[in-house]
Amino acid sequence: MNGKHHEVDCSVILERVYVFIDDELETADCAEIQQHLDDCGPCLRAVDLERMVKALVARSCRESAPVQLRERVKLSIRHVQVEISEGRHLDLD
Ligand SMILES: [Zn+2]
What we know:
Layout: H1 10-23, H2 27-39, H3 47-60, H4 67-85
Helix pairs in contact: 1-4, 2-3, 3-4
Protein backbone atom coordinates (compact mmCIF):
# COMPACT_ATOMS: atom_id res chain seq x y z
CA MET A 1 0.00 0.00 0.00
CA ASN A 2 3.00 2.29 0.27
CA GLY A 3 3.26 4.84 -2.51
CA LYS A 4 -0.40 4.55 -3.35
CA HIS A 5 -1.93 7.77 -4.55
CA HIS A 6 -4.89 8.84 -2.51
CA GLU A 7 -8.13 10.21 -3.86
CA VAL A 8 -8.25 12.68 -1.02
CA ASP A 9 -5.28 14.91 -0.43
CA CYS A 10 -3.51 14.43 2.89
CA SER A 11 -3.73 18.10 3.80
CA VAL A 12 -7.47 17.98 3.19
CA ILE A 13 -7.82 15.03 5.54
CA LEU A 14 -5.81 16.74 8.25
CA GLU A 15 -7.88 19.87 7.78
CA ARG A 16 -11.04 17.85 8.18
CA VAL A 17 -9.71 16.05 11.23
CA TYR A 18 -9.12 19.46 12.71
CA VAL A 19 -12.69 20.57 12.02
CA PHE A 20 -13.87 17.21 13.18
CA ILE A 21 -12.18 17.69 16.54
CA ASP A 22 -13.78 21.09 17.03
CA ASP A 23 -17.25 20.48 15.67
CA GLU A 24 -17.88 16.76 15.26
CA LEU A 25 -18.54 15.62 11.73
CA GLU A 26 -21.24 13.29 10.47
CA THR A 27 -20.69 9.55 10.84
CA ALA A 28 -20.01 9.22 7.12
CA ASP A 29 -17.12 11.65 7.43
CA CYS A 30 -15.73 9.69 10.36
CA ALA A 31 -15.59 6.60 8.20
CA GLU A 32 -13.85 8.41 5.36
CA ILE A 33 -11.24 9.90 7.65
CA GLN A 34 -10.67 6.59 9.36
CA GLN A 35 -10.19 4.86 6.03
CA HIS A 36 -7.64 7.41 4.91
CA LEU A 37 -5.72 7.14 8.16
CA ASP A 38 -5.61 3.37 7.90
CA ASP A 39 -4.16 3.73 4.44
CA CYS A 40 -1.84 6.67 4.70
CA GLY A 41 1.43 6.73 6.58
CA PRO A 42 2.43 10.34 5.85
CA CYS A 43 -0.68 11.62 7.60
CA LEU A 44 0.26 9.68 10.68
CA ARG A 45 4.02 9.56 10.60
CA ALA A 46 4.26 10.29 14.27
CA VAL A 47 3.32 7.18 16.21
CA ASP A 48 1.76 9.16 19.02
CA LEU A 49 -0.34 11.12 16.57
CA GLU A 50 -1.51 7.95 14.92
CA ARG A 51 -2.62 6.48 18.21
CA MET A 52 -4.24 9.71 19.35
CA VAL A 53 -6.09 10.41 16.13
CA LYS A 54 -7.31 6.87 15.71
CA ALA A 55 -8.53 6.79 19.29
CA LEU A 56 -10.15 10.17 18.85
CA VAL A 57 -11.86 9.23 15.59
CA ALA A 58 -13.03 5.90 16.98
CA ARG A 59 -14.49 7.51 20.08
CA SER A 60 -15.93 10.57 18.42
CA CYS A 61 -17.88 8.48 15.95
CA ARG A 62 -19.86 7.22 18.91
CA GLU A 63 -19.42 9.71 21.71
CA SER A 64 -17.58 12.92 22.54
CA ALA A 65 -13.84 12.62 22.94
CA PRO A 66 -12.26 13.90 26.15
CA VAL A 67 -11.21 17.55 26.00
CA GLN A 68 -7.65 16.71 26.97
CA LEU A 69 -7.31 14.27 24.08
CA ARG A 70 -8.74 16.82 21.66
CA GLU A 71 -6.19 19.41 22.70
CA ARG A 72 -3.27 17.03 22.34
CA VAL A 73 -4.41 15.89 18.91
CA LYS A 74 -4.99 19.47 17.74
CA LEU A 75 -1.44 20.41 18.72
CA SER A 76 0.00 17.38 16.93
CA ILE A 77 -2.05 17.95 13.80
CA ARG A 78 -0.93 21.56 13.63
CA HIS A 79 2.67 20.37 13.75
CA VAL A 80 2.16 17.85 10.95
CA GLN A 81 0.24 20.39 8.87
CA VAL A 82 3.25 22.71 8.96
CA GLU A 83 5.52 19.91 7.75
CA ILE A 84 3.14 18.95 4.96
CA SER A 85 2.70 22.55 3.83
CA GLU A 86 6.48 22.78 3.61
CA GLY A 87 6.56 19.59 1.55
CA ARG A 88 8.79 17.78 4.00
CA HIS A 89 6.72 14.64 4.24
CA LEU A 90 7.16 14.00 0.52
CA ASP A 91 10.77 13.07 1.22
CA LEU A 92 9.54 9.80 2.71
CA ASP A 93 8.78 8.46 -0.78
ZN1 LIG B 1 -2.85 11.07 3.89
